[in-house]
């Protein structure tokens, strides 16, 4: 539905007050329009596509940075653990949304601010999971044999840690996507730009914009909610398939 809508419909960026608050199945507007006359189905499709295009690279970036920080324990075991353990404890204790809002306030117009905000909000838990797995791998006999043969830290990363962490990366990627979708929707609801390019408002922004006019155009509020729940459910289903 999203791909068909994006292919057929134009991005919902134009205002047409002559067609505002139209009900569903109106001529030319299958899902009606919002109070600015924008096509609700186009808002649904472009908002969903922007969310997918945002959360996937943001999750990949989070896992990459978390792994790099975890790998520092192989090169600087004492220093990295002493420095990062305190930072991780603080990050897990303070609500991640607060950190993300601070990032957005410090980088209000930066094109990659939303990626940095999601990274700051989500890296600590991934780091803890990867670090625990790395500690487990350190105790394996084949790793001890490699060290006895004179293997360097980068040899261990390429030949032992990355292959052993492959399934863990897949689990963390799929299990984290629903949370990133909800975080992105919350950012959008608070007025933070989450759409990519000129594709119209994000899903959360659509809810915030239309909630006070629910009696006139309920679809404008319900459709982005359906989009968020569908994304969370489908991505969560992918996680279960990946575990199987």
From TrEMBL:
The chain crosses the membrane at residues 41-70, 82-106, 112-130, 168-192, 213-235. It is a multi-pass membrane protein. It is found in: Cell membrane. The keyword Lipid metabolism does not apply. Keywords: Cell membrane, Membrane, Transmembrane, Transmembrane helix, Transport. GO terms for cellular component: plasma membrane. Its main location: membrane. InterPro entries: BP-dependent_transpt_permease, MetI-like, MetI-like_sf. Coiled coil: none annotated. GO terms for biological process: transmembrane transport. Residues 48-237 form the ABC transmembrane type-1 domain. It comes from the Bacteria. The keyword Transport applies. Belongs to the binding-protein-dependent transport system permease family. This is ABC transporter permease subunit. The lineage of its organism: Bacteria, Pseudomonadati, Spirochaetota, Spirochaetia, Leptospirales.
